[in-house]
Write a structure and sequence with these properties.
Elements: E1 14-16, E2 23-25, H1 29-32, H2 35-41, H3 47-68, H4 70-76, H5 78-81, E3 82-83, E4 86-87, H6 92-106, E5 112-113, E6 122-123, H7 130-141, H8 146-158, H9 162-173, H10 175-187, H11 189-192
Antiparallel strand pairs: 1-2, 3-4, 5-6
């Protein structure tokens, strides 16, 4: 098979320089990346991207409302869910991380945890877990107690799953697949509870 003169898929924007006779690129780095990027950088963002972003925000809002709907019941029947106005956490892990957050807020975080493996204590990591750091930071900048932060923070962090689900779905199946994946992931019974 001989070489045929093939037409390029994209027209080249090379211009011939009259002095040197060499072809030089006519544009910037965005043009070198291809016409797809160049089209994206020109002009305003098409309205369909705004609709996608709005739909994703609505899905995140639905996921958040599903996760915090129990607070209404807690306030209606505080004798079942609250102790002295503070929510009761349903896992031991919650109290473990909130204890570390309390130590961070008080400035008493040490490499030895005296409340575990009594009487010797147990070694802690030099840097506290990220969730304890986030809870301590929120306790410092907001008027909420650590118990309320520990009860509501998982609802905020849980809805962030929508972002990678949307990105994966959009990559493999387009915008409708991305939005569907985010919605199904956030309302899934096994993930919510």
């Amino acid at each position: 098979m001989g070489h045929k003169n093939r037409r390029p898929l994209v027209k080249s924007k090379r211009q011939s320089s009259s002095k040197t006779g060499k072809a030089t690129p006519a544009g910037t780095d965005s043009e070198a990346a291809g016409p797809w990027l160049e089209a994206r950088l020109k002009g305003p963002v098409p309205y369909r991207y705004w609709i996608e972003a709005f739909a994703l925000l609505v899905i995140i809002g639905i996921g958040f409302l599903i996760r915090i709907e129990d607070i209404r019941d807690w306030k209606a029947h505080p004798e079942y869910a609250l102790y002295k106005g503070e929510p009761l956490l349903t896992t031991f892990d919650g109290y473990y991380y909130l204890t570390q957050a309390k130590d961070l807020v008080d400035g008493t975080y040490t490499p030895i945890d005296n409340n575990r493996n009594v009487p010797e204590g147990m070694h802690r990591r030099a840097i506290a877990p990220l969730i304890s750091i986030v809870a301590a930071l929120l306790a410092k900048i907001t008027p909420f107690s650590l118990n309320w932060i520990g009860a509501v923070l998982p609802a905020f962090l849980g809805v962030l799953l929508a972002i990678p689900l949307y990105a994966l779905g959009r990559f493999y199946g387009g915008p409708s697949m991305g939005l569907s994946g985010a919605l199904v992931g956030l309302v899934s019974f096994y993930y919510v509870y």
